Every structure is written in structure tokens, then in C-alpha cells.
Amino acid sequence: MSTTARIDDLLDLDSLLTPEDKELRQTVRRFGEQRLRPHVAEWFEAGEVPVRELAADLGKLGVLGMHLQGYGCGGSTATAYGVVCQELEAVDSGLRSLVSVQGSLAMFAIYRHGSEEQREQWLPAMATGDVIGCFGLTEPDFGSNPGGMRTTARRDGSDWILNGSKMWITNGSVADVAIVWARAEEGVLGFVVPTDTPGFSAREMTRKLSLRASVTSELHLDDVRLPADAQLPQARGLSGPLACLSEARFGIVFGAVGAARDCLQTTLDYVGSREVFDKPLAGYQITQTKIADMAVELSKAQLLALHLGRLKDEGRIRPEQISVGKLNNVREALKIARECRTLLGANGITLEYPVIRHANNLESVLTYEGTSEVHQLVIGEALTGVSAFR
Length: 390
Hints:
- By secondary structure, the protein is an alpha+beta fold.
- It folds into 3 domains: 3-128, Butyryl-Coa Dehydrogenase, subunit A, domain 1, CATH 1.10.540; 133-230, Beta Barrel (Butyryl-CoA Dehydrogenase, subunit A, domain 2); 239-384, Butyryl-CoA Dehydrogenase, subunit A, domain 3.
- 53% of the residues lie in helices and 16% in strands.
- The protein has a 4-stranded antiparallel β-sheet, with helices on one face.
- Helix 9 (319-344) packs across helix 11.
- The relative contact order is 0.12.
- The model has no long low-confidence stretch (mean pLDDT 96).
- Residues 134-224 form the Acyl-CoA oxidase/dehydrogenase middle domain.
- GO terms for molecular function: fatty-acyl-CoA binding; flavin adenine dinucleotide binding; glutaryl-CoA dehydrogenase activity.
- InterPro entries: Acyl-CoA_Oxase/DH_mid-dom, Acyl-CoA_Oxase/DH_mid-dom_sf, AcylCo_DH-like_C, AcylCo_DH/oxidase_C, AcylCoA_DH/ox_N, AcylCoA_DH/ox_N_sf, AcylCoA_DH/oxidase_NM_dom_sf, Glutaryl-CoA_DH_mitochondrial.
- Keywords: FAD, Flavoprotein, Oxidoreductase, Transit peptide.
- This is Acyl-CoA dehydrogenase.
């Protein structure tokens, strides 16, 4: 029996998936094993990843914007999308981020807040991976507090003029189109910005020790002139970008489980073959207590993800519920990655095994799409009725 089967069998979690979910999971898992896993350690070490090639492959796989309806998108369930995120992040968080930013941030922004013309113009090509998108909200001085953004949009006749900068933007320097949020007299507005527009520039951010198999960039907008129809007409105020963030956070709820599962699978294989004092490391009580605790937390995280998937499919999910999932699952996944590293000993710090790579990546996942502290305050406000953000 494979280690994956043993982990899933602990609580018979497969029984909670539909046959379609299982088939999709197997398809994406096979893609990950054949196309991604043989190269991911090299991409991570080099800090380089072939985004355009991967986007085309992922488009053929049908996972870019798969949870959106029409416009070349699959119209899948939220749970099915979560299963895909889980399998991709089992390989690497940066690869799940590629799909998440494309589908749940850039494409979803156009799908939810855009005009019909914008949807028809951009979404089909983004679904195939021919057009890559990014999502510009975070700024150098405003991460957890996006309402303080300094990027501005002002009218000039029928046009808009955008000025400002955005930071920590996944795919920013390889994107064909950027969704940029800016402050105008009317409040926070969203804009669809082709990246070849004069005045738009992007610089890749280097020297990262996390998410190295992902392109991270800084965007600059210097008198970027856009026609009136570049504005997302259905977005007004911070509720526009925050709705997109909720979509992305949902994928992370599942994705983090994949990273943790891969760490535990690797560790189970390792302790079964590694001999210490003339017997397998798996045969020691302290090893088994660590593995048992990790498996329990992983199973709980999986159950939480599946429950939130069902709520989302029924149209009943609330933002604070997504915060519960993101807070718990990433926090526990990071703990599992660190604990697995202890069982691998010195081997755990090498790229011969995925554990330290997952741990490094999860340090970023813990922070982006809302820090743990932000999610704690979202949950706290839901329970007390009092906002503690200010």
C-alpha cells in the first residue's frame, strides 16, 4: 500500500469525494509526477521557472479558471478546484500560486467585476494559458491594510491616468495583463491594464528564500493612460479586491493540505528505510508519536477543507469561514513540514527531499492572502461583533 493510501485511509477520506473528483485528482497527480516533480527542485534552486510553458500545459489540462462558468472555463465545483490546488501544492506552493493567481485573482476579477466585453476579450485566452494575468493590490507600504493604497487613478477627459507601484505580485514581470487596484475620487476602483501600455513596467524580485519556483515582481505605473472601458465596472470600494482574495484563500485551504501530505508521505517512506541503532527509525515510539500527531492534524485539515468546499458549492460560505480554513490549514501544514524535517535529520535540509522546500514555501503562504494575524482578527470580529483592526 502506498503512503498516500495509508494517509487517506486513516479516516477513509476518499469516501468523501465523488468519482469525478477522484478521476480529476488522479489526472492532476499524474501531471504533477510526470511534468512538474522531476524539475521542481531545479527550478527552486535556480529561482527560475518556465511560466509560459507551464501556463500552456495547465491550460491544456483545463485547470486555469476551471471554477468559472463559460468563456472557455470548465465550470467545475469549488471542491474539484480545491482538489486540483491540493495536488499542485503537493508538488510546490509556487506552482499552485500560478494557477491560483491566474484563475482566482486575475480571471475572477474580470469574471466577477468586469463588463461582458472584458470577459469575452480576456477570459478565453487566459483559460488556455495563452494570456497570463497578475493581480496588483499589495503595495510596498500597504499589505494587510490595502485601504491605505497610494496608487491613484484620475480622470483625464474620458481616459484614466494611473500612477503608483505594487509589490509582491506573482507573475507580474511575465504577465500580459494586470488587474490593478487604485484610489480615485469615487473610491477604490479596478482596472484591466495590458502590460504593454506605455508607462507600465515590472521588475522581477530576486534573492527570495521562499516560493523560488514562482515569479514575484514589483509593478510601476507612471502616467499609464487607459481608455474608459479599461475600468472594471462592477467593482466599487475594497469589496472588489477582497472578493477576489476570498477566492484565492479558498484554494490555499486545500493547497496547504497537499504540501503537508507530501511532507508526511516523504517522511513515512524515509523512516521505514532509515536504520538507527540497527532497526528502522519507524520502529521507535517517539517517531510513531510524531507521525500519529501529524496524521491527525493533516486529516483534520483535510476534513475542514472538504467541509468548506461543500459550503462553497452550496453558495453558503462566509469570509470568516474561509479565514478559519486558511489560518488553520497553513499553520498546521507548516508545523507538519518542520516536524517532518526533524525526522529526516540532516537529509531534511537538502533538495533531495521536498520537506525543507515545502517548509520555506509555507512561510510565505502563511503570510500572503492575509497573514495569520489578519485571519485571527476576522474570526474574532465574527465572534465578538467588534472590529479590532483599528
